[in-house]
């Protein structure tokens, strides 16, 4: 299994041939045929047996049975949820990282990798306006980033309140807007904190809404943090970061900015003003596997004061002490994880090859697609924009349609391989949703999608 032999030789050439083909495919097929569990079990059951199989036979099963069921998140026609559009450079380098089992746990084990990852974190921190002391690590995704950051926020609140000394346990609360991501609520459940949900009639947490919610609270001493979203996963809306930062400062709350999707907007010159206030965040996350064109799975997690995060997350064990003794910077100290892939490296390679300017342009391209789509919707009788897009997400309604009409339209778009565009809800009403992220999505695709509403 571990040496070069004729079987390994064929494994390598067959798999690399497929990787080569896939990387060179310019517009990948959308795919995404859903097959029943029984059907798939009958194809895949018994494949793994006591004795091995011919590698080409197994690879064939992947290409004929498994691959067609995968909705290609990197297709220009994938306009659902938050798409992905990894650059060829990042995908190719991800394959390289796997080929060498690259890991990024500690300085002792992989100093060069960590220095390269940190250089990317530095660029993101600079763009966000965070101080030179800011730092962190790459984790698997926004959910993991939010969990790790809010765990630190809770510990900081606890130590400020001196909970350990008076022996009193309190339930810590975190202020969130109604559009905060589901992973924030899930994190709060895990950390046994309570959300203090601020009503946001316009889906944007504003200083005004936050101030009036806080004014109604009798005891703010249990508030550990406030979470600002930039921007929301459903509609791409950016909270009033500057106004929220003012209040966080005034009340002494930890400010966490969830920019898993929209945080990449700091690279777009046209969005600059919207991110004012981000420079005052105590923690900030952005998922490069979303709008920074990196492969899954990757979230950049940054802290204003990384040393505080280290006291919360560093794992101690006799066999690990050597890492702490020699460690210049151990990514494992800054989140809930120990072993980790060098998941920041594909982004490092791609940013170095293409330059930051190409990233700015690609992000602006998706903003233009959203704007052009919104313009068509405004000009088309029978269509109505739900709200003006802040980022790349466009919500709209087809007047007179029922919930079933939206679902039928969306299902037909996928069956005909035109697009993946599942509807969403807005104040309980089902509406159409297009999330633009791939810079090569064409307006022709958009026009076809809209024409299919008649
Ligand atoms: C996608 C998203 C998350 C969750 O990120 P994962 O990488 O899917 O775990 C959190 N917050 C926001 C705003 C998001 O868009």
UniProtKB/TrEMBL annotation:
<dbReference type="InterPro" id="IPR002129">
    <property type="entry name" value="PyrdxlP-dep_de-COase"/>
</dbReference>
<dbReference type="InterPro" id="IPR015422">
    <property type="entry name" value="PyrdxlP-dep_Trfase_small"/>
</dbReference>
<dbReference type="InterPro" id="IPR015421">
    <property type="entry name" value="PyrdxlP-dep_Trfase_major"/>
</dbReference>
<dbReference type="Pfam" id="PF00282">
    <property type="entry name" value="Pyridoxal_deC"/>
</dbReference>
<dbReference type="GO" id="GO:0019752">
    <property type="term" value="P:carboxylic acid metabolic process"/>
</dbReference>
<keyword id="KW-0663">Pyridoxal phosphate</keyword>
<dbReference type="GO" id="GO:0030170">
    <property type="term" value="F:pyridoxal phosphate binding"/>
</dbReference>
<protein>
    <submittedName>
        <fullName>Putative L-2,4-diaminobutyrate decarboxylase</fullName>
        <ecNumber>4.1.1.-</ecNumber>
    </submittedName>
</protein>
<dbReference type="GO" id="GO:0004058">
    <property type="term" value="F:aromatic-L-amino-acid decarboxylase activity"/>
</dbReference>
<comment type="similarity">
    <text>Belongs to the group II decarboxylase family.</text>
</comment>
<dbReference type="InterPro" id="IPR010977">
    <property type="entry name" value="Aromatic_deC"/>
</dbReference>
<keyword id="KW-0456">Lyase</keyword>
<feature type="modified residue" description="N6-(pyridoxal phosphate)lysine">
    <location>
        <position position="290"/>
    </location>
</feature>
<dbReference type="InterPro" id="IPR015424">
    <property type="entry name" value="PyrdxlP-dep_Trfase"/>
</dbReference>
<keyword id="KW-0210">Decarboxylase</keyword>
């Amino acid at each position: 299994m571990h040496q070069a032999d004729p079987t390994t030789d064929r494994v390598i050439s067959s798999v690399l041939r497929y990787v080569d083909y896939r990387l060179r495919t310019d517009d990948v097929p959308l795919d995404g045929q859903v097959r029943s569990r029984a059907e798939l079990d009958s194809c895949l059951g018994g494949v793994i047996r006591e004795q091995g199989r011919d590698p080409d036979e197994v690879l064939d099963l992947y290409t004929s049975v498994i691959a067609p069921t995968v909705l290609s998140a990197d297709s220009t026609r994938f306009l659902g949820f938050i798409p992905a559009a990894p650059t060829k450079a990042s995908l190719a380098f991800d394959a390289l990282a796997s080929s060498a089992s690259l890991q990024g746990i500690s300085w002792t084990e992989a100093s060069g990798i960590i220095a390269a990852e940190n250089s990317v974190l530095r660029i993101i921190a600079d763009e966000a306006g965070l101080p030179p002391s800011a730092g962190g690590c790459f984790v698997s995704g926004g959910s993991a980033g939010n969990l790790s950051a809010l765990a630190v926020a809770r510990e900081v609140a606890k130590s400020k309140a001196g909970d350990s000394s008076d022996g009193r346990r309190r339930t810590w609360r975190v202020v969130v807007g109604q559009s905060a991501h589901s992973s924030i609520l899930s994190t709060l459940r895990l950390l046994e904190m309570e959300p203090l949900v601020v009503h946001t009639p316009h889906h944007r947490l504003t200083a005004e809404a936050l101030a009036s919610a806080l004014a109604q609270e009798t005891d703010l001493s249990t508030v550990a943090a406030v979470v600002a979203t930039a921007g929301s996963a459903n509609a791409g809306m950016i909270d009033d970061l500057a106004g929220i930062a003012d209040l966080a400062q005034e009340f002494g709350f930890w400010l966490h900015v969830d920019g898993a999707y929209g945080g990449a907007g700091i690279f777009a010159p046209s969005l600059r003003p919207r991110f004012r206030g981000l420079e005052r965040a105590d923690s900030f996350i952005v998922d490069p596997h979303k709008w920074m064109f990196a492969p899954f799975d990757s979230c950049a997690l940054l802290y204003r004061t990384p040393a505080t995060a280290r006291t919360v997350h560093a794992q101690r064990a006799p066999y690990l002490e050597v890492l702490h003794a020699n460690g210049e910077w151990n990514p494992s100290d800054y989140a809930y994880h120990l072993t980790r892939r060098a998941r920041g490296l594909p982004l490092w390679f791609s940013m170095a090859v293409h330059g930051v300017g190409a990233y700015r342009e690609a992000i602006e391209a998706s903003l233009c697609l959203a704007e052009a789509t919104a313009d068509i919707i405004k000009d088309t009788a029978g269509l109505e924009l739900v709200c003006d897009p802040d980022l790349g997400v466009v919500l709209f309604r087809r007047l007179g349609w029922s919930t079933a009409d939206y679902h039928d339209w969306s299902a037909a778009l996928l069956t005909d391989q035109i697009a993946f565009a599942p509807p969403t809800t807005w104040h309980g009403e089902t509406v159409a949703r297009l999330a633009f992220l791939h810079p090569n999505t064409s307006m022709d695709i958009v026009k076809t999608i809209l024409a299919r509403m008649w």
